Amino acid sequence: MAFAPSGPEASFFEVLDQHRASLLATLRRGGGEPAHEGTRLASRFEDSVGLHMISHCTTRKIKSDSPKSVKNFALILKILSTIYKLVQSNTYATKRDIYYTDSQLFGNQTVVDNIINDISCMLKVPRRSLHILSTSKGLIAGNLRYIEEDGTKVNCTCATAVPVSSNIQGIRNLITDAKFLLIVEKDATFQRLLDDNFCNKMSPCIMVTGKGVPDLNTRLLVKKLWDTFHIPVFSLVDADPHGIEIMCIYKYGSMAMSFEAHNLTVPAIRWLGLLPSDIKRLNIPKSTLIPMTKRDQMKLDSILKRPYVTCQPFWRKEMEIMGDSKMKAEIQALTFLSSDYLSRVYLPNKLKFGGWI
């Protein structure tokens, strides 16, 4: 064993082990459901991959002799020149580094980000192949050890969380006995679980947070852990449209990064909580809930229309419960039941009895 487990008895993980066996069986069969064709936009949905680019999509041309696109053309050449130098010297830079090489020329960081995405898509290579790294904001904790590309040994079993590496493709020798990986939407919830010693109480397990909408490296890490160990992956998000959107990014990807879906998405992710149906089941008082805004309702309606929801009837049912109630809830609403209800009762019961969808 790589670690000395100090969590529940082996029988606690029976349902989790059955779930993992089911996931492995699906992988052996080829994984996923048949492709679901939607509107022919720049991306389509496939259950085993997530959102990815269609082969025949609308393209745009940028010409050096066109007054409308001459500046954009020049910016692309500027960044391509920087990429060439990075590759030739085998060095790396962040998007922020590139922006500051000529901040007045670029104007703002978004311009640089969009051009790098366009170049990555145009050349059909992941961003790291361009020697461009993203700044990480995510954290990881639990039953995991690995070695960074520069030889640094990282142990995630410490009491405090470890920052997600800015070079996920470079990490190697990953070791874990984890029974599951828990993706936590918010940093506040993640820190509370750490304070409650959740990783040790539920050992062996791994926790990750992207601190809201996940950055590229956090998504790459979740994907790498899934590809390496094929352990069950669960998401813990607020029972609101924003939380569901974040869960969908991990599971199915985003339109903006659909050209890199194969490297980023984990369709095996399951929704562990907070489920809208849990609010009624646990008798959480209405005073702790938050009325949905018009923007929330528009976001929920948008998610319900997405092609991947058609193959997730249980997800649709939960979202319809939310829409009918016109109320949303943060995970912190569980503290009404007790201050440590999330780590002591809610999550252990969900994991032991298979309370995911």
Automatic annotation (TrEMBL):
Q: Where in the cell is it found?
A: Nucleus
According to its UniProt record, which residues of this chain constitute the active site?
100
In terms of one coarse class, where is the protein primarily found?
Answer: nucleus
Q: Which reaction does it catalyse?
A: ATP-dependent breakage, passage and rejoining of double-stranded DNA
Q: What class of enzyme is it?
A: isomerase
Stated EC number for the protein is: 5.6.2.2
What is an annotated GO biological process for this record, any one?
A: meiotic DNA double-strand break processing
Looking up InterPro entries in the UniProt record yields: Meiosis_Spo11, Meiotic_Spo11, Spo11/TopoVI_A, Spo11/TopoVI_A_N, Spo11/TopoVI_A_sf, TOPRIM_Topo6A/Spo11, WH-like_DNA-bd_sf
Position of the signal peptide: none
Q: Which residue intervals define the domain Spo11/DNA topoisomerase VI subunit A N-terminal in the entry?
A: 71-132
Q: Which cofactor does it need?
A: Mg(2+)
Record-annotated Meiosis-specific protein Spo11 domain positions: 2-43
Report the residue ranges that make up the Topoisomerase 6 subunit A/Spo11 TOPRIM domain in this protein: 180-351
Quote any Pfam family the record assigns: TP6A_N
What UniProt keywords apply to this chain's record, in alphabetical order?
DNA-binding, Isomerase, Magnesium, Metal-binding, Nucleus, Topoisomerase
GO molecular function (one): DNA topoisomerase type II (double strand cut, ATP-hydrolyzing) activity
What domain of life does the UniProt record list for this protein's source?
Eukaryota
Q: What Gene Ontology terms describe where this protein resides (cellular component)?
A: nuclear chromosome
* Gene3D superfamilies membership: 3.40.1360.10, Winged helix-like DNA-binding domain superfamily/Winged helix DNA-binding domain
Tell me the protein family, please: Belongs to the TOP6A family.
Name listed for the protein in its UniProt record: DNA topoisomerase (ATP-hydrolyzing)
Q: Which organism is it from?
A: Camelus ferus
Biological classification of the source: Eukaryota, Metazoa, Chordata, Craniata, Vertebrata
Point out the gene that encodes the protein.
SPO11
